[in-house]
Amino acid sequence: MSRKIIFMDIDGTLTEPGSNIPPESAVEAIRRTREKGNFVFLCTGRNEGMASPLMKYGPDGLIASGGGRILYGEEVLYDCPMTEEQRVRVLSSLEKNNVFRTVECQLDSYTDESFKEFIETSAKDGNSELLRWRKQIEESLNILPMAEYHDQPVYKVIVMSPQKDNILAAKTEWEKDFNLILQEPDRYGIYNGEIVNRQFDKGQAVKRVCDHLQIPLSDSYGFGDSENDREMLETVGFSVCMENGARSMKELSDMVCEKISENGIKKCFTKLGLV
């Protein structure tokens, strides 16, 4: 039997948003599928530092920063931070247009000092994206004040603003080199998104890993929940969206998986014959 490879998003898929602790049923599913000879890669928008607490649960590798850095065990398969010119252009355009920035380096992330104050006053019940970021900051997941940032290489920039036009105005200065993955506004009208280098995305990362391990895409599976998983779900041989995921991702996927809180990963692995 050919070996399969499974790519798993973290927030909203393997864990509750902002958490570093997957349910035991998901950990068991990862262990059992690897015992069967299959590979498991985390495939996340988080940087390596923010994703590293999940590596103790046994995945074979990590696709971090939305595809900007790929690790297989200790081996670095791909590494693509912004150039210095790109970094300066992106960050200055956002600052000029009053867009909140969180820059993601390899291990640490740095956020505008006013960002935490903003989300603390804006986050409300049901506003999961804001609450996720607040929880990450409060739990010190390597998210530091921008004043401590000293021009380290940047892989990705998170943006947030109550004014979509501000984000779009900044976009005109870097859209040739970068994609803007902008989420639909929540019910409070807050926009958030990711600025990702056009040289990579989760789908391209899936191809790079499969090529390296010599596994056909037809034997790959992808688990995700949001718009930043689109390229991964479009690329893998079989796509799965979590029940709590975006409607557009459910329509795109081959299967909808029960929520992580309902042992969905283990149930879905079983249905697909991965354990």
Outline the structure in words.
It is a single chain. The chain is of the alpha/beta class and 275 residues long. 33% of the residues lie in helices and 23% in strands. The strands form two sheets. It has an eight-stranded mixed β-sheet with strand order 5-4-3-2-1-12-13-14, sandwiched between helices. Helix 2 links the parallel strand 2 and strand 3. The model has no long low-confidence stretch (mean pLDDT 91).
Q: Provide the helix percentage.
A: 25-40%
Strand order of the largest sheet: 5-4-3-2-1-12-13-14
**Total beta-strand segments:** 14
Continuous helix count: 10
Structural class: alpha/beta
Radius of gyration: 18 Å
Summarize the structure.
The protein contains 10 helices and 14 strands. It is of the alpha/beta class.
